[in-house]
Amino acid sequence: MLFTKIIFVLSVVFSYTKSNSLEFLELRNTDPSIIEDATLDTFTLIKKYGYPCEIHRVYTEDKYVLEMHRIPYGKENSIKGTRPVVFLQHGLLSSSAEFVLMRPDKGLAYVGNIRSPIIRAVAPFTNSLEKILKLIGANEILPNGNLNKLAGEKLCIEEAITQSLCTNLLFLFCGFDVEQLNKTMLPVVMGHTPAGASTRQFIHFGQLYKSGKFAYFDHGWWTNRRTYGSFRPPAYNISTIKVPIFLHYADNDWLSTPKDVDKLFKELKSVVGKYRVPLDNFNHLDFVFANDAKKLIYDRIIRIMAQF
């Protein structure tokens, strides 16, 4: 019933994108720079705020093209000289834009376990969902498109009567935390989120939740036997990871719960520490979008990295 209501609301919103009846959302006091940021890609956002940026494309063996963005140095740094690499990997339905959306004073780029209601809803029907998506020819779930543009430019701006819809959609999947939500920047966030994900990636996450195991993709017993040599997909052996890992978590994170983090902490052999964010309502998106993310998370990460 809940998802039916969400789909109904979104269908109404989509109907507005094909009409000219959005004048009631026009607000005179909206910062034009916020609206602009909601529509810019990662490369252009970085360049807008005076930082250098490079685009690198990685071609995988299975014919995917991955676009990576690199900030080689800061505003005050010299171009020459070698520096350690800091790699930031976004999560499901996200993109590299998340690390720069909050601008230089708060964005992580200037200084990856999913358990959500949507995954729980998908998990029991992963096999049927794959067949349906193949039938209709859908290769991507929740792609970034017209709805994101509408959200960034109209629906989620401050004082808009529809802004509460934007906040509640975020809270519905990630946990409620009004205190840390920057409503001024909400149009920028919703203009880039969700960023889409392949259908198989989404189905894989549903399989992981359903089985409770971190395993390879389950193709079905016949293809599994040909691909893996067994009827069931083998589990990833994360105990062999040797890179030092420091885990950060929050009690109100619905996508990576404290229980999940404890399980990961016990299975990993290279964990050097675990830290709970000392705010009861801190949620999954707060790790990148919270008002106090820099003070609570980013400054700690930089201090930890300096030890290695």
From TrEMBL:
Protease is among the record's keywords: no
GO biological process, one term: lipid metabolic process
Keywords annotated in UniProt: Signal
Keyword Disulfide bond found: no
Partial AB-hydrolase lipase domain residues: 45-102
Coiled coil: none
Signal peptide region: 1-19
InterPro entries per the UniProt record, alphabetical: AB_hydrolase_fold (IPR029058), AB_hydrolase_lipase (IPR006693)
Protein name (database record): Partial AB-hydrolase lipase domain-containing protein
Organism: Pieris brassicae
